[in-house]
Amino acid sequence: MRDNALRRQDLEGYDSLPATATTTARVGTDFPNFWGQFEAQPQRKWQVEVVNQLVKFAKLPKGWDSYNAERFRSDAGMFALEVLEKVMRPRTPVPQIVPTASGGVQLEWHQKGIDLEINIVGPYNCELWYRDHQSGAEPLALEFSSDFSPLNIPITQLTNR
User: Fold this and answer.
1) Helix (H), strand (E), coil (C) string for 79-99
2) Which helix (H) or strand (E) holds 38?
3) Percent helix, strand and coil across the chain, each to the nearest 5
4) Is residue 146 part of a domain?
5) 132: buried, middle or exposed (CB in 10 Å: 19+, 13-18, 0-12)?
6) Residue 132 C-alpha from the chain's centroid
């Protein structure tokens, strides 16, 4: 009780704080583009990690795997970002990103009793392989292009488990 009385007493006369340059600029219309960017949410963790990996893959030379692998296709990387943008949720684990010998990219999750792999050969040319070891259901293997709905159940399971 004594601590509360001291706090109230210490705060007497400070009902309103003077406006600073920062608060004035935020409230006013000065530099709206700056404040919009400044107060924007930072990129999600997966975006930063995936983009960093894709940039590394873009630097790989032809034959990077000693078996004459194709150079990494930037359009496959861009499509991988598009797929992830559509399916990732705030608590979805970040996938492992692996370049493929055909120049594409593979997104992989092997955790929580789930194996999920998305092989992206190029834009709208994808393969999905999914197995939930806890449910005992048959593995799922299929091709997909612009309809990402086959990823809903695997991503939901991976995110919520």
Assistant:
1) HHHHHHHHHCCCCCCCCEEEE
2) helix 32-38
3) 40, 20, 40
4) yes
5) buried
6) 22
Q: What is residue 10's predicted lDDT score, i.e. its pLDDT?
A: 44
Mean pLDDT of 42-53: 83
Alpha-carbon 133 to chain mean position: 25
- The answer to whether residue 57 sits within a structural domain is yes
Contact 116, 108 (CB under 8 A): yes
Length of the chain: 161
On whether residue 35 sits in a domain, the answer given is no
**Quick check: 51 pLDDT over 60?**
yes
Q: Cα–Cα distance between 67 and 155 in angstroms, integer?
A: 33
Count of structural domains, the chain: 1
Output Rg (C-alpha) for the chain, integer angstroms: 24
